[in-house]
Amino acid sequence: MPAYRIDNLSKQFDQSTALDGVSFEANAGEFVVVLGPTGAGKTTLLRTIAGLEAPSAGRVLADGQDITRESPAARDMAMVFQNFSLYPRLTVYENLAFPLKPRWRGINADEINRRVTWAAELLGITSKLQSRPTELSGGQQQRVAIGRAIVREPRLFLFDEPLASLDAKLRESMAIEIHRLQRRLNVTMLYVTHDQIEAMGLADRIVVLDKGRVLQIGTPQEVYAKPASPRVARMLGSPPINLLTPAEFSSFLGQPPASVGTLGIRPEHITLRTGGPAKVRLVERLGAITVLVLNYAGIDLRVTVGPIVDVKIGDDFTPSVDPGRVLQWGGPI
Amino acid sequence: MADIQIKLDSVAKSFGNFTAVEPLNLSVERGEFVVLLGPSGCGKTTTLRMIAGLETPTGGRIHVAGRDVTDLRPGDRDIAFVFQMFALYPHLTAGQNIAFPLRAAGVSSADATTRVHAVANRLGITHLLNRKPRTLAGGDQQRVSLARAMVRAPQAFLMDEPLGTLDADQREHTRTQLRAIHNELAATTVFVTHDQLEAMSLADRIAIMNNGKLLQFAPPREIYDRPADLFVAHFIGSPGMNFIHCNRTGDNAVTIASTTLAAPASSNGKIVLGIRPEYVRITPAGIPATVEHTEHLGSYNMLELKLGDGVIKARVPADINASSGERVHITLDDAGIRWFDPTTQRAI
Question: Do A167 and B278 make contact, defined as CB atoms within 8 angstroms?
Answer without folding.
Answer: no
